[in-house]
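Q: C-alpha cells for this one, please.
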Amino acid sequence: MIKQDKLAKINLYDKFNAAFVSLITPEMKGLNKIRKQNSYSKEPTLERPFEMPLEFTTIDGVKIRMAKSVIDSQNKETIVLLSAFPHTIIAYSPIWEELKKDYNLYAYDLPGFGASETKSDFMSFEFQGNFVNSFLAHFDIEDSHLVAPDVGMASALSYVINHKNKIKSLMIGDGPAALPTSEPSIMKKMVHSGFWRAMFIIAGSGALIESAKNLGNVRYVPNKYEISDYKNSHKGKVANNMKWFKKYPEALKNIDENLKNIQIPTKIFWGEHEAILHKVNGINLNKRLPDSELEIFENCGHFVYQDDYLKFIDLINSWVQKHK
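A: Here is the predicted structure, written as C-alpha cells:
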C-alpha cells in the first residue's frame, strides 16, 4: 500500500509544534488522564493498515483518491465513506477489511483534503456537498448509506439538503451541524482566529497530524504507514484546509437552518472524550433532526471509527440492516 522507503515521519519540528499546541490546550489534561487509564502506549494498535484498492480518478475536473470494492451491486447494500480531517481514507482500513465481506464499498478523500487535488474553490460545505452528488452520479450509486465523520459530516448534510437523492440512511458524527455550537480550544482557534490559522499553516502538515493524534485518539495508536500517508497527503495543503475553517461559521448557519427538512434516517455518533467539538453538539443535533438516533462512544475521542473500530463496525452493520 505504502512503500517503506518513502515513509514520511513526524520530525522534531513537528513534535515541537504539536507539543506547543498541547501545552495551550486545556482539554489535554483530561485526555491524558483517559489515556493513562487505557494504558495508552507508543506501540501502534495495528502494525500496518489493511490493504485497500486505492486509485485516482477525475470527476467533474477534480482529481481525487478513492477506493472501491463492489461484490454485488444488485443485491448487496452500498456504503460510501467520506474522509475526515486530517486523516485520509487509509484510516478506514480496519473497518474496510470487515465491511468489504458483506457490502459494496466506496471511499474517497474529499477534494482539498487527503491525497485528493486541492484548490481554494473546494473549501466550502457547498462545494463538498455538490461533489458528493457528482461522485454518486459518476458511479451510478443509488440507495446507498453515507458514513461521514468530521468534515465529511458537513459534506453529507450539505448534499442531502441541496440535492434530490435516494440515500437510505446517514451515519454522521464528530462534526458541524447545529447551532449554537460548543467548540473546545483548538476548534475556536481554527475557526475564529486568523492568527492561529496562520500558525497552523507555518507549522505544516506534520505538526497538524501529530496534534490531531494527541487531541483525537485516546485508545487507537496510528501506525507509521498511516502517519506517513496523512502527512504526505496534506503536505502543501494546510493553507487551503484553513480556508474551510474560515468559512465555517457562515456555512454552519445554512446547515442549521435546514436540519428540520432532513427526513433521512440518521445515526449520530460522538466520542465521549471529544476535544474537537464537544459531545453536546451531538446531543443537540439529535434533538433537531426529525429521524435520528444518538450513540455516544464511551472511552473514545474524536476519531471514534479508530478508537473503537470494532464497535463502529457493529454500528454500521446494525444500522444498515435496519434501513436496507
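A few notes: The first helix runs from residue 12 to 23. The chain has one domain: 4-322.
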